[in-house]
Write a structure and sequence with these properties.
The strands form 4 sheets. This protein has a 3-stranded mixed beta sheet with strand order 1-2-3. With 361 residues, the chain is α/β, with parallel strands linked by helices. The protein has 12 helices and 12 strands. Helices cover 32% and strands 16% of the residues. It has helices at 35-48, 70-80, 104-114, 141-146, 158-166, 190-197, 225-234, 257-265, 271-276, 279-290, 308-318, 337-345; strands spanning 64-65, 84-88, 94-99, 151-152, 171-175, 184-189, 218-220, 239-244, 250-256, 301-303, 322-327, 330-336. Helix 2 (70-80) crosses helix 8 (257-265). The radius of gyration is 21 Å and the shape is flat. The protein has a domain at 208-350: CBS-domain (Roll), CATH 3.10.580. Residues 57-115, 294-350 form the CBS domain.
Length: 361
């Protein structure tokens, strides 16, 4: 691959470094530019004055070996309480990223393999991440390579960091640390960056509908948990709206990669019993097992016309990664952290050709 400025894609011993993104800063708004566009421009300019080195580094980077078997690898993520981490080759170079989003297909295969020989196997859809990982795989090399781990020098602007987090990566690395951690000083998640820059959103006044993604992928609260993981794997989405027909289609639960984490983190994991449960019961039971000493906030929703700044504030306070957008109690869209970064950091012409599905992986 031909190197580009500030990048090191060609050296297999070096993690990919994101290209310079100052060109994403728009030209000064014309007198006819909308107030919303001027606010976004100001927001980007404020981020351009801050650097990756300003971000908090409250704990050492967590990594995992590429030789780790899949079930063991996702169990490790669960016990560390994280959604993703860098994967290291045997020579200590960075191979890519392990992300809980890639565990959904594996969970479906665990269910299928747990069935007796005389039991009918479910017709699992073979797309998305379904055909990437199986319980019999020796390691996580293939899935790690699908998700490059992007790194930045401490001098990179927060515009660059936010842009990377808007285009598929849920974590990025900041260099300048110890060699034991492959030079990483910290791993930055979407949530960490959003919490850090949340005060800058005060100047951004726009409705949620300007940033939300559609269509909604949903399932009934009475359907088995297995279907939720099948949908996330086959549709390549990271969350499902769980709705209750008896409550006029109201969103009652959010099923996401967090539920994959609680599945792998459960000491009493039983694919047949767990995945055969109604999804609402599965979510409640697994969360109680995983967080017996914590109180989880109830499902949170907003409307299309709510102010983006107010909703971002709610996401920061709850530490949620997304919020369902409802109209007359029914889900009509989703606002995720990816949606927020994507719509505020990426020029419109760079977003053409997207699928529009909620929280595409």
């Amino acid at each position: 691959i031909t190197p580009i400025p500030r990048a090191s894609f060609g050296n297999p011993r070096s993690p990919p470094v994101a290209p310079h993104c100052n060109d994403l800063l728009m030209e000064p708004a014309s007198p006819k530019a909308s107030e919303s566009n001027r606010a976004i421009l100001k927001f980007r300019e404020q981020l351009a004055r801050q650097t990756a080195g300003d971000l908090p580094a409250d704990k050492e980077p967590i990594t995992i070996s590429i030789d780790t078997p899949p079930v063991e690898a996702f169990t490790y993520l669960s016990r560390q309480g994280i959604r993703a981490c860098p994967v290291l080759n045997n020579d200590n170079s960075i191979a890519g990223t392990l992300d809980l989003r890639d565990s959904c297909g594996l969970i479906c295969h665990l269910y299928s393999e747990s069935l007796g020989a005389d039991q009918a196997k479910p017709a699992l859809e073979r797309q998305g991440s379904m055909n990437i990982l199986k319980p019999s795989d020796a390691d996580i090399s293939e899935v790690a390579k699908r998700r490059p781990f992007v790194t930045f020098p401490a001098s990179a602007t927060l515009v660059e960091v936010a842009t990377a987090l808007a285009t598929g990566s849920h974590i990025v690395g900041i260099m300048g640390g110890a060699e034991a951690h492959r030079g990483l000083s910290r791993v930055v998640t979407q949530g960490i960056l959003l919490g850090f820059i949340a005060p800058e959103f005060e100047s951004v006044h726009m409705p949620v509908k300007a940033c939300m993604s559609q269509p909604v992928v949903s399932m009934l609260v009475t359907e088995p948990a297995l279907k939720g993981f099948e949908l996330m794997a086959s549709r390549a989405v990271s969350c499902i709206a769980v709705v209750d027909e008896d409550q006029d289609g109201r969103v009652v639960f959010n099923m996401s990669a967090t539920d994959a984490r609680t599945f792998f983190g459960s000491a009493e994991r039983d694919p047949i019993t767990d995945l055969g449960m109604e999804v609402g019961d599965f979510i409640v039971e697994k969360q109680l097992q995983a967080s017996s000493n914590k109180t989880r906030a109830p499902i949170t929703v907003c409307t299309e016309n709510d102010d983006l700044h107010a909703v971002v504030t709610k996401l920061v306070k709850t530490r949620y990664h997304r919020i369902w957008v409802v109209r007359d109690t029914k889900p009509v869209g989703l606002l995720s952290l990816t949606d927020v970064f994507k719509n505020l950091m990426i020029p419109d012409d760079a977003l053409e050709g997207g699928t529009g599905d909620c929280s595409i992986l």
